[in-house]
Design goal:
With about 200 residues, the chain is an alpha/beta fold. The protein has one domain: 3-Layer(aba) Sandwich (Rossmann fold). The chain is built from three helices and eight strands, in the order H-E-E-E-E-H-E-E-E-E-H. The chain has a five-stranded mixed sheet, with helices on one face. A hairpin with a 2-residue loop joins strand 3 and strand 4. Helix 2 crosses helix 3. The N and C termini lie far apart (about 80 Å).
Length: about 200
């Protein structure tokens, strides 16, 4: 009798799993429309990292803003990789496109002893407004590793409109916002290469 009950419970558990809604996974990507905005050659190595993000979005699920005081954590809509890693990868890709001749890599994959520049990014706001906008506020700094100069620091605010319906369009807006952030960093790197 006990075995029969266990079997029935197992059937119900399995049927419950099979009726669960599918989980959709998303990645941040370099936008197809991203073009090399900087014509100046930049024959230097750059490491991107560390990247920090607000704790409220430091999870696998997408977090969307519903009201000023309420967010929804979407169990069926998730990032395919840690959000910090995804942000770093997009910035690396965009800087590689915007800086002619640069060798750009995430900090974890770069040779720290030979990297000439290090870019750290503190994302202070990563807001997702479904059907409306992706908002990123980031404070970033550039450090020339072999120089005694103080790091170059700045803050970039980007609000990118969502083009289309669904969460894929929202994620694409975040990718475009990161491309805008990357262009600001690229311009600062070009300015910094002439300084001693």
């Amino acid at each position: 009798m006990r075995n029969n009950c266990a079997a029935v419970l197992l059937v119900f558990a399995l049927s419950g799993c099979s009726s669960s809604p599918p989980v959709n996974f998303y990645t941040l990507e370099q936008p197809e429309t991203s073009t090399a905005a900087a014509a100046t050659a930049f024959p230097h190595s750059v490491a991107v990292g560390p990247v920090s993000i607000p704790e409220s979005v430091n999870r696998s699920q997408l977090v969307v803003r519903i009201t000023p005081n309420r967010v929804d954590v979407l169990e069926e809509e998730q990032w395919a990789e840690p959000l910090k890693s995804g942000i770093a990868q997009v910035v690396v890709a965009c800087l590689s496109a915007d800086l002619a001749g640069a060798s750009v890599a995430p900090l974890a994959q770069s040779a720290a002893s030979t990297t000439e520049y290090r870019v750290s990014i503190d994302v202070q706001r990563f807001e997702s407004l479904p059907g409306k906008a992706a908002i990123i506020d980031a404070r970033w700094s550039i450090k020339r590793t072999a120089s005694e100069m103080a790091p170059v620091t700045d803050t970039t605010h980007v609000r990118e409109s969502v083009q289309g319906e669904g969460y894929a369009a929202l994620v694409a807006a975040h990718s475009r916002a990161l491309a805008t952030l990357s262009r600001a960093i690229a311009a600062a790197l070009i300015a910094a290469q002439g300084e001693k």
